[in-house]
Amino acid sequence: MKPFLLLATRPEDAAADSEYEAFLRYGGLAEHELVRIRLDSVNLPPVDLDDYSGIIVGGSPYTGSIPTEHKSDTQRRVEAELAGLLDAVVAADFPFLGACYGIGTLARHQGAAIDGTHAEPISAPTIELTEEGVADPLLAGLPRFFRAFVGHKEAVSHLPEHAVLLARSELCPVQMFRVGANLYGTQFHPELDVPGIIERIRIYRDAGYYDPAEQEQIESEVADAGVVVPPLLIRNFVSRYAR
Questions:
Q1: Does residue 94 sit in helix, strand or coil?
Q2: Which end of the chain has fewer beta carbons closer than 10 Å to its terminal beta carbon, N or C?
Q3: Domain of 90, in residue numbers
């Protein structure tokens, strides 16, 4: 099997490593089957799509919708590299899964509007699949309604006409969409379970996602949320595109 490629942008080692481990575990992949490149610390090398089964872009503390002058040099580099890669990925309709920061990366490339209007606090809202989502093969086996972990400062507020809306939530109208037949973005985190979200809460305590005084309450709420469905999406992605 050709490996999948995980493009990671988390500069915190603990968060980056646990994200990688989660995609391995829920994708049923061995380490040689999921190549990781940490764009926070290295430039993106040339990527030959023929070498991979698919590409995954995970989450990030980067906020893409802030003015360019407020972005670090590293963030500007990463955004330019991902945009260049997406030129080839979209043209080839190559399998792509972008989670949280990854949905913004794909959405921006496709001309979507992204801003802070539909930000969500760290929580586990109910995700609702659209009719198109129910019929989409990547969501096979997922119920029409399920809970998933979120926590983001920006979100897609308007999709271009050629994008297909697959899922939404009460506070966020675009929780998942598809471009072409094989490119997907999810605002929710399909890779996060309870230990994973609690670790993120602690790592990003001072990153502006929540009031640190509410940390204990937030941890208690996510621990009781009963989130079990979203990782199936990762397994479906791997099963569908492994070659």
A1: coil
A2: C
A3: 4-241
Tell me, what DSSP letter sits at residue 31?
A: G
Q: Which of 218, 229, 199 is nearest to 19 (CA)?
A: 199
Tell me whether strands 126-129 and 145-147 are parallel, antiparallel or unpaired.
antiparallel
Q: What is the pTM of this model?
A: 0.96
C-beta atoms surrounding 43 within 10 Å: 9
CB-side exposure of 78: number of CA atoms within 13 Å? 28
Taking the alpha carbons at both ends of the chain, their separation in whole angstroms is 5
Instruction: Please tell me whether residue 117 adopts helix, strand or coil conformation.
Output: coil
Contact 233, 190 (CB under 8 A): yes
Cα of 213 vs its chain's centroid, Å: 27
CB atoms closer than 10 angstroms to residue 119? 16
- Residue 220 belongs to domain with CATH number: 3.40.50.880
Name the packing angle between helices 73-92 and 101-109 (round to 10°).
60
pLDDT in tens, 191-200: 999 999 999 9
- What is the total count of domains within the chain? 1
Q: pLDDT (tens digit, 9 = 90+) per residue, 125-184?
A: 999 999 999 999 999 999 999 999 999 999 999 999 999 999 999 999 999 999 999 999
